[in-house]
Design a protein that fits this description.
Largest sheet: none
Oligomer: single chain
Shape: elongated
Strand content: under 5%
Order of helices and strands: HHHHHHHH
Distance between the termini: 32 Å
Helix content: over 70%
Radius of gyration: 17 Å
Length: 148
């Protein structure tokens, strides 16, 4: 996990995740070599969580209340925008600007958040990589049950 925190590029962990899945969890390479690269392309759960939290934080800072339908829109838009960065480190700041503007919040606060974004990006990368690994282990266990 320490390795995940020291890098901000999820796709660079594909070989590491495949090795960990095989050695520590007994996942066959035929499964991990498919699910981990697929997850690194599609699984951005860390980013979705971050964008939602930042929008709620900014809303609270400016005193703007959020209702349930707006929160659902935040989750949906976060899920869509999270896949649009193409794995570019720091691209989340641009996506945050889009989110903040879409919900009519002041964009100046994103500049303050940008100062801490490197730390946030380490957390989202860790979450994304661990999500890829967890999904791979889940698929492997389901395949084991299916074969038995």
């Amino acid at each position: 996990m320490d390795l995940y925190l020291n890098n901000l590029f999820q796709r660079s962990f594909i070989p590491v995740n495949i090795k960990v899945a095989k050695e520590k969890f007994g996942v066959p390479e035929r499964i991990s070599s498919f699910t981990i690269p697929l997850g690194s392309q599609m699984n951005y759960d860390g980013s979705v969580i971050l964008y939602g939290c930042v929008i709620v934080f900014i809303s609270q800072v400016v005193g703007h209340s959020l209702d349930i339908p707006t929160m659902l829109k935040i989750v949906g838009m976060s899920a869509i925008l999270s896949t649009g960065g193409g794995g570019i480190p720091g691209s989340g700041i641009v996506k945050l600007f889009i989110m903040v503007e879409a919900f009519g919040l002041p964009t100046e606060i994103v500049g303050i958040i940008a100062a801490f974004y490197h730390i946030f990006d380490m957390g989202t990368t860790t979450n994304n990589c661990l999500g890829d690994l967890a999904g791979t282990i889940f698929v492997s266990r389901m395949e084991d049950k299916k074969a038995a």
